């Protein structure tokens, strides 16, 4: 009978097996209980390397994929980070442990409310959580040293490009939703320069003024 992973260390091993090498990131996963960031009915799956449905047609990012995206930002602890798509806050908590501070924006008020509670219970205090249209970023807190977008669109929205500090990094799944390339970009004097493709993946669509229409949730 197969054993069910039940501890953060199981998730750390899965991420290491997937190629994650950043020791600070692995330690953040080790000390951030994912079971506190998933719906109560899915706690048994919290330490498996798999996405979890969180309602409103949304799912958490698979932990190894989230870790690849965070690792692609190259955080050293000094950064001012923007996260597009808070979900229930697990990735937000990881970013908060790895950066100086995080601004996270979530379009769905109920998810944002749950994330705020989850982060508070874990005493994560260096996060400013906004409710709103993430496709336009959070311009009043820009510029950012790093931006991570947890939803797919065929290109990086222009407002997000404008909010990345020169030499800053942005990671986003590029595609129409359902089959993407997760790409790491660096902001240069002329705009964004693609540095590398991190992985292929499946993401929900980025919705909003600079993304897909809000009622357009599925792949074409």
TrEMBL record:
Its main location: cytoplasm. NCBIfam families: PRK00312.1. This is Protein-L-isoaspartate O-methyltransferase. It is found in: Cytoplasm. It is an enzyme of class 2 (transferase). Belongs to the methyltransferase superfamily. L-isoaspartyl/D-aspartyl protein methyltransferase family. Signal peptide: none annotated. It comes from the Bacteria. It comes from Streptomyces vastus.
